[in-house]
Xylulose kinase
Amino acid sequence: MAGLLPSDALFLGFDSSTQSLKATVLDGNLVIVDSESVHFDTELPHYRTKDGVYRDPSGNGRIVSPTLMWVEALDVLLEKLKSKVDYGKVVAISGSGQQHGSVYWNKHGKAILTSLDPKKPLRIQLEDAFSVRESPIWMDSSTTSQCRELEKAVGGALELSKLTGSRAYERYTGPQIRKIYQTQPDVYNDTERISLVSSFIASILIGNYASIDETDGAGMNLMDIKQRVWSKTILEATAPGLEEKLGHLAPAHAVAGLISSYFVERFHFQKSCIVIQWSGDNPNSLAGLTLNTPGDLAISLGTSDTVFGITSEPQPSLEGHVFPNPVDPNCYMVMLVYKNGSLTREDVRNRCAESSWDTFNKYLERTPSLNGGKLGFYYKEHEILPPLPVGFHRYVLENVDSLNETKVLEVQEFDPPSEVRAIIEGQFLSMRGHAERFGMPTPPNRIIATGGASKNESILKSIASIFGCPVYTVQRPDSASLGAALRAAHGWLCNKEGRFVPISCLYGDKLDKTSLSAKLAFPAGDADLLSKYTVLVNKRMQIEKNLVEKLGRS
Ligand code: 5FX
């Protein structure tokens, strides 16, 4: 804006997420001009994924996705978008990838990438480029022993967190790489380069291996978060020769490379179009939501639910994650992640609300705040936070309204409307409890809600009551691809100026004229109700602690 971006230029942002590949196109005024998506299960049914993934039926927690499906999705998406968007006007591209997922290029990977034939689709050319055809993704929970080994190598979980921003998590890429090295040494030895989902698609776009960016790199348990370099101690504890397979790190606003001739010839992109480093989906959402004030929180409601904010003084702990901020090298983002997000809400909707969001919302509106003391814990997948296995747990707290010492009774089931309120209150009480414990402010200044479920007003109202702050929404729930398009514009500007430029320069005081502005959806809930929820949060955290002691992964 303010003349910093050419008015006739376009900026293209992708989001390669768990269930789909999306694209958002911004013009030089930061207004969305087009968007498109490819849904994996329905548009690429030959991969036979369910929700974009394969779950190991033996229940060992292994969850992967077919790497080639992501490639074919790019073929299909670019075809779909070409009738709507003049690719010749796109001056910069960036993207977002589900965090932590990894791709293993074999010894032919680079040669294949650098000689793509524009007459053929990508999928058939990349078929033989990988040493393993199925990529471990963020939903995987099969690497508990590798996590403990990495923590031990640096003196414990807290030490690993101080060094890398997180204790070891099963879905993190370092433990995943170690598991491949231990269980499939041939695959590991045959691997020339390891990419994250983000750097993987950037590699295809530039026709060469793209660097991993420092922000998504922090989701691997391998990077020294302060120095922003690979930690030699942890690399050695993970697998031999790993540094070479990872390549260099790069800041998120840096240029990954020029678009490859494949896309120039096949889709008529201009030769000078640059690809800005791709990053993780949550960091891109942070950018897309223009989060820039400590005290603002974002809640992203998608396949995973995440809560994040920014800080200049991170204090990594045993809970949550710290990543470099993708649009401000001087500060960090802090984040909590829940695996049981939209798919678990949908499960309750299907079981209790006639598979209808209207009925679900009617039940939510009809039941009282605090749910008469009915508290539920719903883990359809092994949960990350808290680390609990698949299972549903329901309790009734007596006298919840009077704030007296209550008796807690475990029960087998709730009536359908109470079950609906129990999952929604349960998810947000947990977010509030863990966000407070992680040092995020309470009540926050404001919450910006994004992701598919942020369209649901009944859910937003519950967030405003439980957190006691106003809730804002953005024009479009797909903040990750929007954030990627914005980062494309930001990277383009930094490159043009030859120095880092604060991202706010792009919109100045004209944010409300762009597609990035947020609007008030609900004011803060009332103070009396907030204090009752405060009591309920504490009770819930106590019950959760007991569950973790009884059933939790260490
Ligand atoms: C973040 O740490 C996560 O694991 C998830 O939010 C994934 O990024 C979802 F794609």
Observations:
- The first helix runs from residue 40 to 43.
